[in-house]
Amino acid sequence: MYNLLVLLTAIVLEICGDASIRIALRSGRWWLFVFGAALVITYGTLVSFPRWTFSRTMGVYIAIFFLVSQTVAMVMLHEQIKLPAIVGGTLIVSGGLVILLWN
């Protein structure tokens, strides 16, 4: 559970940091760029904490990343998620579950 919480925290930091930088570049708000960069640096540190192998960590990370990024895209960036992303995302999340649960 510890590893999943650390990954989820890292994912939220990375996605919110990326979204903040994207918004800053479009709006010219430099402080939002700096804030986003700080979030991305923190993510880069946290993603190394899980005690799994690198390949397992990244497999699970990518699946959770997809779910959180789509949520942020809808909420922060007001994007509509299209069917190809839903179908592809289902495959990504299924793969993440196989990596997480298969011993």
Describe the protein in words.
The protein has 103 residues and is mainly α. The longest helix is centred in the first third of the chain and has 26 residues, at 2-27. It has helices spanning 2-27, 30-46, 54-75, 83-101. The chain is flat, with a radius of gyration of 15 Å. The protein is built from four helices and no strands. Helices cover 82% and strands 0% of the residues. The two termini are 16 Å apart.
- Listing every helix as H and every strand as E from the N terminus to the C terminus, the arrangement reads HHHH
Averaged pLDDT, please? Answer: 92
Roughly what fraction of the amino acids lie in strands?
under 5%
Question: What is the rounded distance between the termini?
Answer: 16 Å
Count of helical stretches: 4
Number of strand segments:
0
Q: What overall form do the CA principal axes indicate?
A: flat
Q: Any low-confidence stretches, pLDDT <50, length ≥5?
A: none
Q: What helical percentage do the residues reach?
A: over 70%
Largest sheet: none
Cα-atom radius of gyration: 15 Å
